[in-house]
Design a protein that fits this description.
two-stranded antiparallel ribbon; transport; ABC transporter involved in vitamin B12 uptake, BtuC; 2 strands; about 75% helix; globular; about 5% strand; about 290 residues; mainly alpha; 12 helices
């Protein structure tokens, strides 16, 4: 096993899991809405980026367009459909699944089964007889910056305090003057924008097609469930664990076995730790404080 291969594969996997899951974690973990259309939100970000780049926009500008389009779509959907589904878990699953189908077929009708792709920038890192995409390795610090930014927003700002109060006890928050409808909308838009950011970042590395969202959705849900109730800590821990397992088995046996090992790890964690990895962290912390 080549050590650099393992390091680069881990960086790639960690970034993929975290970026795929973080938007879903915000919407599901903080709002209780199971967004089965999350993969299609990522697809919209990828399409917005690719189409803008093909129209002549510089890649950073095209990525910003992809994020903006997804955020606006999230705002419209939350105001028209999603806000009616809070505290209706199964209804939200069916509705967002249907939205995902509509978005997929809509993109297929509008743009066909494929569009011209954007090339991956920055070239490759060469080491011996191997090489790895520089761009995909640099997605690791981007993922860490996203996690750090969300931590600041939700723990160090007035908006974050109001958002967490709304999510934990909406009736009390409303009685204290918090516009809970606005907080729910803003939180859903943030989750949508994060999904769009994921699609924008991965647009240069993947084939952008109408069904691409499914490849993100599975890993996102696995990461959120494995991580547990804490949005940021859980996403970070699940990204680290699942990324490591996938990297090791991919380097030893190939991509297929890496995916299988990651899913088996998720099954074991879910079976043994009912509250995921953050539940384990909390139990250890309480035990240490008790001593």
């Amino acid at each position: 096993m080549n050590a650099l291969n393992l390091v680069f594969q881990f960086a790639d996997n960690f970034a993929f899991v975290v970026l795929a899951a973080v938007g879903l974690a915000v919407i599901f973990g903080m709002m209780g809405v199971i967004n089965l259309g999350h993969g299609e939100f990522i697809m919209i970000g990828a399409y917005g980026t690719t189409l803008s780049a093909n129209a002549g926009a510089p890649l950073p500008v095209a990525m910003a367009v992809g994020v903006l389009v997804t955020a606006v779509m999230g705002f419209v959907l939350e105001r028209t459909i999603i806000h009616r589904l809070y505290d209706r878990l199964f209804d939200s699953m069916v509705a967002t699944w249907a939205l995902g189908l509509i978005l997929t077929q809509g993109m297929r009708i509008l743009f066909g089964n494929s569009i011209p792709q954007v090339s991956t920038p920055l070239g490759n890192i060469a080491y011996g007889e191997f090489s790895y995409s520089t761009y995909r390795v640099l997605l690791l610090p981007v993922a860490l910056l996203v996690l750090g930014g969300l931590y600041v927003v939700f723990t160090r700002t007035e908006f974050g305090i109001r958002a967490r109060a709304t999510i934990q006890d909406p009736d009390t928050a409303r009685a204290l003057g918090v516009d809970t409808d606005r907080m729910y909308t803003a939180t859903f838009v943030i989750g949508s924008a994060l999904a769009g950011l994921t699609g924008a970042l991965y647009a240069p590395t993947l084939t952008v097609v109408p069904g691409m969202g499914s490849s993100f959705l599975v890993e996102a849900f696995v990461a959120v469930v494995v991580g547990g109730p804490s949005v940021l800590l859980g996403t970070t821990l699940s990204g680290g664990l699942l990324g490591t397992i996938d990297a090791v088995f991919t380097n030893l046996f190939g991509t297929f076995y890496g995916q299988i090992a990651m899913l088996l790890t998720a099954i074991v964690v879910i079976r043994v730790l009912s509250n995921g990895l953050t539940g384990l962290v909390e139990s250890v912390r309480n035990r240490v404080e008790g001593e």
